[in-house]
Amino acid sequence: MNIVDIILKKRYKQDLTFEEIDYFVRGVTDGSIPDYQISALLMAIVLNGMHRQEMTNLTLCMADSGTYADLSYCRGIPVDKHSTGGVGDKVTPLLLPLLATFEVDSVKLSGRGLGFTGGTIDKFESIKGFNTAIPTADFPRLVNETGMVLSAQTPDLAPADKILYALRDVTGTVDSIPLIASSIMSKKIAGGAKALVLDVTCGSGAFMKTRERADKLAAAMRTIGRLAQIKTVCVITDMDQPLGRTCGNTLEMQEVMETFTGRGAPDVIRVVCTLAVQLIKLAKKTGGMSDEDLYKECEIRLTTGPALAKFFELLASQGGELSPSGPVYRELPHEAMRITSPVDGYVKHIQADKIGMISVKLGAGRVQKTDEIDYGAGICFYAKVGDRVRRGDVICSLCHGVSRNVSDDLLFDLMEEIYDCYEFSDEPVETSDPIIKILD
Ligand code: URA
Question: Residues 63-74: what's their mean pLDDT?
Fold first, then answer.
């Protein structure tokens, strides 16, 4: 077999066989195919797409490039959750402890933030001492103790995807439904789950900017799930404004604490409880409750203490420092600038990807993988879509870590950028349910 023939085949819109895809993925993994040829094939896939079977074969070959996790130590059916990313997405630290209260075990392998989206690992690392590099051999003990383990992705989990993703990032080939779907599903399949709930985010703060693209991505991942015999539920959620009231690492973990203690934002609670119901059903741990009752029970356990107790167990089991008042953070946020509404009216739209980039410029994320982040940096939202504001009301604030400095020049530049993200209306603005659709 010859890689140039494979590239040409895709260039002329022909389907690749299993053997050709397998040859390509092996060559990526062992380094025998150079980056320029890998990139050429990736671009041909971006331009000419892949049919269902090709996409599934790519997924299975990428999963096969590393080792498969055996989750037989989990109680019941091993389930997993994945989000396609967003701004202010603090779902995972809320969801895992909630699931643990239903005896649904979680082995969660998460990533760091890149681009305008935040990463779960960075959020947990805002807590002093919390270890996200857990050796795989320790997973069963931790799951046995608390029902949860949260770790950075292990190097042997779909290594071909790691190589391809890094190349896609620098060759303009990230935005492709077959490549995104196979990238996500290969890691989930290798991760050992037997059933999945995928939070497919949609809107300005997501990779999928439109409903049509979100539907297509969901359909592609469900097709792969079906062909790979993994029950896959997709929940399409609204990410057309940041989720909740904060973005930034410590800020989001503080919001997680507020949610556990009954002071959470309604959109966050809605997304967490909806995903929880789907996962509990897949794990067959509903205890005979109807969907409606289960949802109510999730809300109660999430906001009145049971999930908080499990959250503290998770933090303690992975070395996170706890004080009597809650987690101890590496860096606390300092509110450096409050931004006020320029008009009387209603918030119509908040451009979430630009908000995410402003948060990155404050120090909350990385421009390059090696950048150090300021855990205290981020943005607090005091007015969200639909809220009535008067001229001079604070709509949001910019934060940096208490021990850090951000120049006034940068803060004023970012203030200008924030004004570009907010759109106001004279008329009341209707708000919509953050759950757009459930495909089960
Ligand atoms: N997340 C992934 O894991 N892979 C992609 O390609 C895009 C988002």
Answer: 94
Ligand 1 pocket check: which of 184, 188, 201 to mutate, most ligand atoms within 8 Å of Cβ?
184
pLDDT digits (tens, 9 = 90+) for 282-300: 999 999 999 999 999 999 9
Ligand 1: which atom is nearest the Cα of residue 187?
Answer: 3
Q: Domains (ranges, CATH) in the chain?
A: 3-49 (1.20.970.10), 79-323 (3.40.1030.10), 333-425 (3.90.1170.30)
With cut-offs at 50, 70 and 90, classify the pLDDT of residue 116: confident
Catalytic residue among 90, 112, 162, 168: 168
DSSP annotation of 369: T
pTM comes to: 0.94
Tell me, in angstroms, the distance from the centre of ligand 1 to residue 180's CA.
5
DSSP-derived secondary structure for 166-233:
HHHHHHT----HHHHHHHHHHHHHHTT-SEEEEEEEESTTSSB-SHHHHHHHHHHHHHHHHHTT-EEE
pLDDT (tens digit per residue) in 332-378? 999 999 999 999 999 999 999 999 999 999 999 987 777 889 999 99
Instruction: For residue 52, indicate whether it is catalytic.
Output: no
Tokens at residue 265, please?
A: 């934002």
Three-state SS for 332?
A: coil
Q: How large is the greatest C-alpha to C-alpha distance in the chain, in angstroms?
A: 67
Ligand 1 centre from 149 Cα, in Å?
21
